[in-house]
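Record format v2
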Amino acid sequence: MPITSPASAVRLEGFELLVLHLPLVSPFTTSFGTETVREVIVVRARTADGDGWGEIVTQQAPLYSSEYTQGAWDVAQRFLAPALLDRGTVAPHEVAGVLEPFVGHRMVKAGLELAVLDAALRADGISLATHLGATTDRIPSGVSVGIQRDPAALVDAVAGYLDAGYVRIKIKIKPGRDVDDTAAVRAAFGEIPLQVDANSAYTLADADTLAELDRFDLLLIEQPLQEDDIVDHATLAKRLQTPVCLDESIVSRKAAADALALGSASIINIKAGRVGGYLEAVAIHDLCRDAGVPVWCGGMLETGIGRAANAALAALPGFTLPGDVSASDRFYTRDIVTEPVVLEDGHVRVPTAPGLGVEIDSDALEGFTVEAVTV
Ligand code: NPG
């Protein structure tokens, strides 16, 4: 369902950018490294019609993608925020076009667009979920479990999340920590909805190992090969029974269309940050829905800002698989919004108040801020 009525234009007065350091409740290990603190940039758009909030989901180092926080910090201040401010008055659906001349930096574009969108929708009195085309008021919640010390520790961690009520488990894998880890989880918990995420850690030469995962009846294997291995993913998908899902490779609607045309993926993970914004994310959802391809909402360890927006996105009808929209306390002891996402019967509620539908906890925001600038 494409967005039919665009949100109103707002008159921009400035952007505040804040670098936050949020301690994680436990270290999060993927095939590309271990994080103990989430470094993230929060964006506040100041407009004549009120403020709006967004989040730039870059990480401290360019390991998941080529974007990283200090690069984002620079490009936002030097080019992207000034380009929007030069326009003066801008509607959310025009933001991508204004920023299009600048190559890449999609996470920064997404964060700026979300702040403008939030300001506009708050002024219009419309929730982000309604605006994007949500058709449900709560979404099933999956959890992403990092690589643990050994398979036994992984089983313990998964047990805790299942007890908490998460309806789908995703485990991170990497070479040497794949078949045994997956086997241990299957042996311990039987036929739970289970999927694996490789974060680009393999090559086609590993196809035999990856095919061993077929016996575990996984929902999907996520991003086994490199971001630009779009042809190799198609070759691999033919070798595997497990459906191949792409994450890192899908940087735009165009990339999604290409991947589907080539048979590189049969399921797509949608992350607004990775694709340059929530409006592009909806375009990918629409494309996949028309093609009968299931999508699910990925996560980037968002604060309450991005988590609220992800819940709104995941409420669209094409999101037929549970996403990584978990409760805030899966990562943080304290969030920066007054009503952090909580798990209720394995589900997360979709905010209904105007804009993001959440309010900022200014004490928490201030407490976690390590750098601030106004453009
Ligand atoms: O629930 O927010 C979450 C985390 C989900 O595993 C998750 N995210 O590769 O998808 C990923 C991974 C990630 C996190 C990637 C942070 C990049 C940054």
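The longest strand covers residues 10-30.
The two ends are 35 Å apart (CA to CA).
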